Amino acid sequence: MAVIAGAAVWEHFYAPPGEVLPRGIVIFFFASNTIMICAIVYFLLESFLKKQEELRAELRESLNNLRTTQSQLIQAEKMASLGQLTAGIAHEIQNPLNFVNNFSELNMELTEELKEELKKEHADPELLGELVTDLIENQKKIVHHGGRAASIIKGMLEHSRTGSGQLELTGINQLAEEFLHLAYHGQRAKDSTFYVRLHQDFTFGLPEIKVIPQDLGRVILNLLNNGFYATRKKVLHNIPGYEPTVTISTRQVSQYIHIIITDNGTGIPDDVKSNIFQPFFTTKPTGEGTGLGLSLSYDIITGAHGGTIEVESTLGEGSKFVIVLPVRR
Predict the structure, then answer these.
(1) Are 96 and 146 in contact, with CB atoms under 8 Å apart?
(2) pLDDT tens per residue across span 149-191
(3) In terms of Cα–Cα distance, which of 79, 219, 88 is closest to 162?
(4) Domain presence at residue 321
(5) Does one domain contain both 97 and 52?
(6) Strands 197-201, 245-253: parallel, antiparallel or unpaired by DSSP?
(7) In Å, how far are 168, 211, 219, 305 from 165, measured between CA atoms?
């Protein structure tokens, strides 16, 4: 370009991967070639602005894709916990259903005996009374165990609800015990050789507090599963006399309820401990964890529940997770 009695200054900045995007700053003193210079400046600025808009569009698309992927991963994590709940519930519901079936069969036999006795011309009043009493007692047991099965199913439906649940007054000991059984039987459903000694240490007389039961239950389930995983890994070390143990306990400290889950598994290295609540961070092999379990747990406790969750761990000795929830909200 020829500029008469003028000067042109060119600046460049770089956009990855090494692409040069020119920006022209043109200084001139005379009117010569003014139109040409202005046209060049306009062209360069238009090119630059267009490139900026394309980059912004790409960034917006990338952000939307990341949000979609994040939502899908979070839902997958929830479905994974629901799958374990289902396995545990299948075991829990089998016992009351067995009782219902057994007592129903007994009542059918008693009913046949009662019919036969009533056909007699001189029925035995004492025997009739015994048969009717047995029928009534068995029926009470059927109602009791049927109600137990119904409550388990109701709990499953509550825990599988999506969206933001409502805060409800809840007994923490009962919730913790329920999820302890569900977590254990869920593991046993996946691996029949799985074994761990379970220990409950609940403080009785705790006040009911407002929580979202299905969400807090997911947190307890996740922490228990981590404890099961750590103890199972330590079992593979074949340490003489080692007995895998997971303990869940509750305490009231001033105006707070503590839920404490302890295991004597492999423990967590210090360099890992500081990252365990970060999204997508996991030390498990590919396919065994998304890295969202503890991140979601942290969000559930510190978000809607206004609490805290902390971890203490010694490598080779085990870990302790402490959930702290306010009594009054």
Answers:
(1) yes
(2) 777 676 666 555 544 578 999 999 999 998 998 888 888 878 8
(3) 79
(4) yes
(5) no
(6) parallel
(7) 9, 9, 14, 11
Could you tell me how many residues make up the chain?
Answer: 329
Residues 200, 183 within the same domain: yes
* Overall domain count for the chain: 3
- Look up tokens 């200054």; give the residue: 9
The model carries a pTM of 0.58
Q: What is the dihedral of CA 103, 105, 111, 117, to 10 degrees?
A: -110
Burial code of 109-119, b = ≥16 C-beta within 10 A, e = fewer?
ebeebbeeeee
Peptide bond into 17 cis (omega under 30): yes
For 4-21, the pLDDT digits (tens) are 444 444 444 444 455 544
**Of 71, 97, 118, which marks where a domain is finished?**
71
Out of 3-7, 225-229, 247-251, 269-273, pick the least confident: 3-7
State yes or no: pLDDT of 76 exceeds 70: no
- How far is Cα 93 from Cα 149, in angstroms, rounded to an integer? 6
Q: What is the pLDDT of residues 276-326, one digit of tens each?
A: 887 665 666 645 554 457 888 888 999 889 999 999 999 999 999 999 999
Residues 6+ apart with CB under 8 A from 161: 214
Residue with tokens 């046949």: 112
For 317, the domain range is 168-326
pLDDT, tens only, 12-47? 444 445 554 444 444 443 444 555 556 565 566 667
